[in-house]
Structure formats: C-alpha cells, structure tokens
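Handout, tutorial session.
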Amino acid sequence: MLKIENLCYTASGEGGEKEIIKNLNLTLPDKSFTVITGPNGGGKTTLAKLIMGLETPTSGSIQWDGQELTGLSVTERARLGVSYGFQQPPRFKGMTVYDLLKIASGRDMGRLECCDYLTQVGLCAKDYVDRDMDDSLSGGEAKRIEIATILAHRGGLMMFDEPEAGIDLWSFSKLTETFGAISRRKEATLIIISHQERLIAQADEIVLIDGGQVAAQGSQEEIYPKIMGQTVSACGRMEEQGC
C-alpha cells in the first residue's frame, strides 16, 4: 500500500518560494491501477518525483508497503521496488538498449526476454535491441524504451509520467493493452499521470490533483464527470475572455 500523509513541498526560485504540494494526503491499495490527472501546474509530476526521491519534501511522510521512504535515496527506493518514468527520458550514449534493459532488470536477462519487453511497448525488437541509447532515437522511441526498462525492473510500484507523450497512435494502443494486462494480472501497483481518456477509462481509481492537493478521488464513474465539468468551465472562461 502507498500511503502519503501531510506531504508538503516548497520550491525556491527567482521569484521566491512557491508551495507546490500543500498538505497532501493519499492512500492507494496494493495492485491497484490509478490515473492521476488534473490541470497543468497542479503538482502531479512533483508528487511522483517526491515518491521516487527525485525531490525532497518540506514535510510529511511517504510510506510504501509499511516502509518509510521519506529519508531514502532514489537507489534505495528502487531496491524496494519503486520505479518512475520521466516525461522526457534521459539518453545514455555508448550504451545499447539491450544493456540498459539488463541493468534495469537487475538480473542476467537474456535477449529473448529483452525483446519481449520491447514488443510490449510497440517496438520491433530486432530493430532496437542493439541500438545505442543516444540522440539518434526519437523522443517517442526513447519514451517507449524507458517504459520497457520499468517493465523489466518488475518493481511493485510503477509510476509513468504521461507515457503517451510523443508516441504514435498504434504504439499508444499497444501501451494501453500492456498497462491493462499489468492491472488485470495484479502484477504491481500502477500509477499513471495522464489526461488520456483511454487510460482513465481503464483505471480502478482516479485521483484529481489541483493546486497541490487531492481535489477528488474515486472511481472512473465518479470522477470523470467532474473532470469534464472543469474542462467545460475553463473553456467557457477562455471564450468570455476572448481567448
């Protein structure tokens, strides 16, 4: 179970300090599929980075399977099964896709298994398994390979930040199938940050983050109408302002 209590995060910048996450509380059951959505700038990505340890909270507690994560490093959290896919994946010049997947898996993974993970994210394995993880890859290709590394890691908590970004329609369909299969087989606690209706429709739980807080949490049937209502209201305000 993922349990977040009274989480706060304040960032410092040129304009001074800004509170991004504001006393946020959230509990997600094991092996659940949750989509976190909400307006841009609401704190969704920051929340995921706090869970992964890429940012340090100002205060509060993050627990995974009864283990307090707040003071642990990214590496320590990864060893506990926590993983995170960036909006913009990093590149690793001089490293092949096969080597990256083996490192991510933490085991001596064979080429056949590696190819299976690439297939799950909509890539032709024979075309990518020996390619370098450098700038020759498009953004969408790098994104799919990063998702494959998270699948290969086989952690208990998988977080994906806008996995649909830069990915073609066919590959996105393949990804939704993969995420759905993980959910059905109860392989991991799955958290996806997304605005995509097809992902939202598959989720067990939807969490709406707005203004650094949980604005709503519940089933797709409960929360999606609220999301649509907010979208319609926002569009109406823009039209009134002549946008």
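The second record follows below. Compare its token runs with those of the first.
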Amino acid sequence: MTVYNLRTNEEITLTDDMRLCAALGNFDGVHLGHAEILSCAAKKPDRATHSAVWTFRTHPDVCRGRQDARILTSLEQKFDLFRSFGIDIAILDDFESISCLSASDFAQKTLYDTCRVRSAVCGFNYRFGKGASGSAGTLVDLLSPLGAEVHVMPPKNSSGTVISSTEIRNKIEKGDIEFANEMLGHPFAIFLPVTEGRKIGRTIGIPTINQVFPAYYAIPKFGVYACRCKVDGVSHIALSNVGVRPTVTDGHVAVNCETHIIDFDGWLYGKKVQVDFYKFLRPEKKFDNLEKLKEQIEKDMEQTKKYFLK
C-alpha cells in the first residue's frame, strides 16, 4: 500500500489515467462497519483502477484539543488493517486544512479533482464539510453530476447493537473486551514501545514489559487481562495489567500496561510490541506484599492458559 500525504505530496503523484474508488472516513478502530466500506472499495467497482482510503493523519478530536478524545487505533495500526483488506493507496489529509472547506469544495475539488475519486464509499452517517454540513446524501448530490458513483453502507449490528467507534470505546472502558472485539472483528490492541520499568517482576520470577499509554488513547478498565503478545511476528500467550500498579507504587503514576509474556525470554526494551486484549479477568488490586501478588499472578496465568486452550 502506498501512502500519499496531500499536505506534503509525498510518495506518489496521482495521474490522469487513475480512477480511484475511495473509502471515506476516520476509521478509528477499523471495526466491522468500517470493514463493509473497505471491502467495497477494495473490489474497485465502477471501473476503478485503484482502491483507496481517504482519511485523517490525526484524529479530529485530537486536533480540536478535546480532553475526552479516546483513540482506538494509531495511524500505524490503521495502515496494517487497511493492507489486510487489499487497499492500494492511503490518502492522508489534515483536519485543520479541510475543516474550513464547504461540502461542495471538499467533494469536487479535494475528492474529484485532486484525488481522482471516481467512486466513493462511505457509511450511512458520514459527515463532511465546514460544520459537518455535508451528509452521505449530499455526497451523492455533489459527485453524481460529475459522473462519479457513491456507495452508502447501511448500519452494521452486533448482538443487537449498532457498531460504532463510540460504542466500542465504551465497552473497552467498562472491561467488556469480548463484546468490543466482536464489534471490531479483531482484538483491541496496543502497539507501543517497551519502556524501562522498576524490574520488580524479575525479583519474583515473573518478568514483565511496560508500555505507557499516550495521551488521547482509549484505556481499558483497570485490571488484569488475558492477552496475546506479538513479538517480531510471533504470537505468545500473555497476561497484562492495565492501571497504576498500586502494590508497588503510590498510584500517582502514568497509566501503564504491564505484561508478562508466558514462556518467553528475550530483550524487548525499545522495541514496539503489540498486545492483543481478549478477556477481562479481574480488577486491579493492591496486595499486602509481593508474595501475595505473586500468588495471584500465578492464578491469573493458569486462568489465561485455560482461556486460550478452550
């Protein structure tokens, strides 16, 4: 997949013989509703020569400085998921650069003229243009006279709930990881660098890696989770604690994901490691001493192994 940044003109130049079918949206989480949009674009309908995604480089809520912004997927994670659908081109734009454009200018000048979009795919609730004045219906009205087709995807449901990034965030923050994963169509995951910790886990024979959640990230409910860790492309069973580690800190620390990778021995400091969350096991708890903490972790490890053996 080739990445094209509209603001820097990096990587490629779109030529006159290119006809793009572009999936439009922010795609935070790249959930099952997004999958319908991406799958349609990947099929290159309407004589398209290339499949594409038009999306933001940075989430609009972050650009607006909203303190309640909670991001499900980094841009790097989105790229991996876009590739899995067979998307040819990812087109990035900056929210600040287009938030003042009218719906007409965005559809005709940005999509049709600049991006060579001759077929667009969006969700039923897609909004665009200054003040979110444009809707999916508006997009049809603006692009159809130019000879471009628009495919509008209906709502997608999971267990009677309309799938949305907001609903998934809410489930994750309540610890309902299994339902969140059902709506995502893949495990909720973090992909972050491993940072130096206090190495207390090693003193009790349970070494861990530490990953600090950046600002604006969706943070799972504090507690212990059955997980899988991907290290250099290999998946390992793991146990993660999300929180502030009250047994070994005063609680006034950055929210951390501390993971013990079962039956793994390796040096991971400075590497980026993916942690996939599968099941909430128990809330975070302060133990009286390290020995009691170790006893509980060993029980958690057995529960995790049983979960993945099912």
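Points raised in discussion: The two ends are 36 Å apart (CA to CA).
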